Amino acid sequence: MEKTALITGAAGGLGRALAGKLAAEGWQLVVTSRDGDRLRQAYGDKHLQIVADCSTVDGSRRILEVAKAERMLPIALAHCVGNIRLGALHRMSETDFMDCLNANLISAFHTLAAFVGALREGRLPGAAVLVSSAAARIGTPNHEAVAAAKAGLEGLVRGAAASYASAGIRVNAVAPGIMDTPAATGIIASETARAAAARQYPLPGIGSPDELADLMAWLLAERAARVTGQIWAMDAGFSTIRPLVK
Known about the structure:
By secondary structure, the protein is an alpha/beta fold. About 40% of the residues lie in helices and about 15% in strands.
């Protein structure tokens, strides 16, 4: 029986990395983005491509309705939508804050709700993995907006995992540090900025989307059948240990 996975934010660096891994493992894919041109550039004519805004109720429901109509109802969800809005709390505009909240939390809530609703209607088990951030776990300067949004996402994961465990629906999240993706271009644009960012981690360096995609693919697979309600850090120790001062 063919398995179908839904990847939101599929035109981004993490979404593309995960799509490659899941396709190699035999999954059928439904890939979504607000930008149809970027989807086509990333995937050509491969996979079921749906252009929709999953930060709205109608947009997220439409994704599942189209997938169901194409007989590709997903039993796995990887929500890779998000952005990085940096800036001190007192200087951030309302527009930037709401953009951060919509991309990182509101989209996760509506997408997970539509996904779970479709599984419940079909009486199917399933698994979802969302993307948090190390900034939700440890205070980091100028990360107030994204930290608040991702902390909300982590609460959503734990609550949904509790609500739907009895239905065989697993919900987890991953929490990376900075990754070498287009979304982080503004933070590590120069060699100096990149080197400074790499030095802040106990295990120095910049994360790879391929590394995080490996973890996400495992969390969606049957190999992780006993795992739910967890936030998996992949931040080189940033949120949990203090490196030796030399």
